[in-house]
Amino acid sequence: MNATPAAPPSPDHSAARRAFNWLRNETRAWAGTEGERFIFVAKCMLASFSALWLAFRLGLDAPYTALATTIILAMPSSGMVLEKAFHRFLGTLIGCSAALALVALFPQTPTVLFLGLALWVALCTGGAAMHRNQQSYSFVLAGYTAVMIAVPAVDAPASVFTLAVTRVTEVGLGIICSAVVHDVIFPRRHSRAVMRTVQARYAGFIDFCRGVLEHRITPEAAELNHLKFAADIAALESGRAAAFFEAGHSRTQTRQLHAFNAAFMTALTTFYTLHRLSHRLRAAGSGPVLDLVEPMYAHMARTLGEDLTAARLAQMRTTLADDITAARAQLAAAPALERAQQIDFDTAVELLERYASNLADFAALYHGLAQQKRQQVSDPGAYSPKTPPAIIAASGFRAAVTLLVTAGMWYWLAWPATVNAILMATIFCALASSSPRPTAMVQGVLLGFMAGMPLAFATEFLLVAKADSFYPMVLAALPLFAFAAYLIASPRWAGTGVGMGMFSATLVVPSNMMRYDVESFIGSELSLTMGVVVAWLMFKVVLPEHTMGHRGHVAAALWREAQQACDARLYRLKRRFDNRVRDLLSQLNAAAGPAPNAETRAVVRQGLTLLELGHAVIELRQLIAASHAGEARASLETVLRLLAAYLHAPSRAAGEEVLQAVLDAGTAVRAALPDVLHETQAERRARLHTALTDLHSIYTSLLDQLSGEFHAA
């Protein structure tokens, strides 16, 4: 008996299910994009008006300061909020202390007081430019908080202590409200963003290496990839610092992330050297060396297309060892290679083995982080930024000049509202000092000020003026501040949103004693905007070429780092050198934008060449320190001495002298190899082979330098 066929679903039921699935998918997509922004806006508003309510209840003199603090601290994740809050409070305390000291020293001499403030602001802005992370925010706050406290106390020095205590209280109240709301209510943990960054970094690097080994990526595209990788290294360190403030982040994770960054830089540098050698071999045409190493590249590329487990990586290294053994046997049976070809082969083999080892370390650290395993790793030290000294000095000088110019305007105009211009100009000169595009940053804030003008005026005199208690006042001001927070949630319009929020918080929020004065309101609007315009003009007029990431300063700083590789103390020198060169390339990437021009790409090539050169120099110094006296050691010391002289005073004659010294040293090292064939001397033999590889790197890097243009200081 045949079974009765099932009845087909009714059209109504199928249509309802499709509608339900469509609605569910759309809701899920909205929750992941706009939903996140609306939750962010809601949290910002809760923190802002909670701080404002508490400020009113406590009878603080300037309740808007607490609200403005919550707007400034509005960040995408709880870790970023907590990190910025910590540095804001620290900077506020230091700035208030500096203001108390300056006013106490110069209570009756305003001219000397302003000179002292200018010096203090210059030092703090220089410190902000030097660090370029959330630590720099403490320097910025310390600088302009001193101005905010000391300038109003010029005519009444006795009030400076009250002003300082009030400022700390108001800022502290805003910090507490922001920290509690963002860390408790629908918290968005930054540690998750850090892990997404780690995963993207790992996948991107593996794909890049595979593309290079398969010859799918041009040298020009590879250079741009290295520039982006440098920015990724800095971004991961910034994210790690923010995640450190979250409860679930441990010191062990910090060490793992440091080690992951260090392993990535090591593998990236080795692979760049390998890639340059491969490109030179291919550019020279098909030859015996290329025929021998191409199968090794192919085997490694196939491995990179698979899951890089520990077992698979061990198998890759075994296959590589077999390939090397087979290549050496093939060489022994064939006619002897020319000297240059033998050096190329030995160098390629050394770099392949080194890269395989670096890749295994990098993958192991990645899998430990991805699987949330606690790995015991030696901390290689934190990522350390490196800002060119000229940029630091220019940032401090520009901030000091800005303060003195606006103070002069205050004196000659005799307009009380000019105090606002002094504060705004000082604030944004300091904040933008760490930006690769300071004028664009200030323009974004200025746009927020301009857009906020009519909105703030309408909110103040058409809505807030009709409120008779706190809650109607919140309803009146809420649309303006919610719109500013919505803009802050967008990376493209964040600066405009911050400008609108700060502007509105200063003008719209009523104080304990309400005064609705149109003339005073317009005067404050104009003076605040004038201060931002002055900051923009200062970046345009005062040392406009001395900004973060300028290619001329980056090129000179890269050259100085190569000089220090020859002279500096060896302890953790390789780590510091790698950090600083990558950080300089990261600055260059931020300033260049998505499409670097030819001049910027030339600096990138120079930086990568100097990176290769510096690593070889540091390794040679380490080998010399561990070796015994002899002809090989003496020849290596001669290479380092001449190379240091060349880097300090580059010229073609000095470069050619170094090239000859490298050739002589290679001869001396190869002459020492037959004396260390015994198994008990395997370690020394490995050091000699490493020295030959480093000499080859120095030789080819110098050839690139001499064939191109110098970008030295």
UniProtKB/TrEMBL annotation:
Membrane-spanning parts: 38-56, 62-82, 89-106, 112-130, 137-154, 160-186, 417-433, 445-464, 470-489, 526-543
Locations listed in the record: Cell membrane
Keywords for the protein's UniProt record, in alphabetical order: Cell membrane, Membrane, Transmembrane, Transmembrane helix, Transport
Pfam families: FUSC (PF04632)
Membrane topology: Multi-pass membrane protein
CC annotations in GO: plasma membrane
GO molecular function: transmembrane transporter activity
Main location (coarse class): membrane
The protein's name in its UniProt record: FUSC family protein
Organism whose genome encodes this protein: Duganella guangzhouensis
Lineage: Bacteria, Pseudomonadati, Pseudomonadota, Betaproteobacteria, Burkholderiales
